[in-house]
Design goal:
73% helix; single chain; 6 helices; mainly alpha; globular; 0% strand
């Protein structure tokens, strides 16, 4: 099966997302560091897969581990604010749409992983689903105020101004 069309559309959508985020960020310097770091990780991964891996199966396995780690980190990222949620007894520092989207997307990918019998798809996404449930439970335990503050999108922790 040829995945080039899928990969190209995914790469284009990711590029547009980053471009949109970049154009709307107030502080560009932290973004430059993040983009440089992400570019270095992608470059190093491509070099390893194309030139250093012993064989294709080993490269696939190592790439699967790297992607699993990255997916779990991505799904758990909103929980970086968990101490503030417990301290303030409010979920104003969490983005409900992001937490809900993380849960739904992880659940969909987990179901797909079950269908195709791929542990590298199932494991991070079942963990992502559980983290999503934990994040959504925080919204039930600690509801927001009537008028939540606007968030500074340039801050990696999305703190209220």
């Amino acid at each position: 099966m040829d995945y080039q069309c899928f990969l190209l559309s995914h790469a284009l959508s990711e590029f547009l997302y980053v471009l949109y985020f970049y154009t709307h960020a107030d502080e560009k310097k932290p973004l430059h560091r993040m983009l440089l770091g992400a570019t270095c990780i992608v470059f190093a991964t491509l070099v390893y897969i194309n030139y250093l891996a012993e064989d294709v199966e080993t490269a696939k396995y190592h790439l699967g581990l790297l992607c699993t780690f990255g997916a779990v980190i991505n799904f758990g990222a909103p929980l970086a604010s968990i101490a503030e949620v417990f301290r303030t007894k409010s979920t104003e520092c969490l983005a409900l749409p992001l937490c809900l989207a993380n849960f739904v997307v992880a659940l969909e990918w987990f179901i797909y992983g079950v269908i195709i019998h791929d542990s590298f798809v199932k494991i991070p996404n079942v963990l992502g689903s559980m983290l999503g449930v934990a994040q959504l439970a925080l919204f039930v335990m600690y509801p927001r105020a009537d008028n939540p503050p606007r968030y500074d999108m340039s801050s990696p922790t999305l703190k209220a101004p």
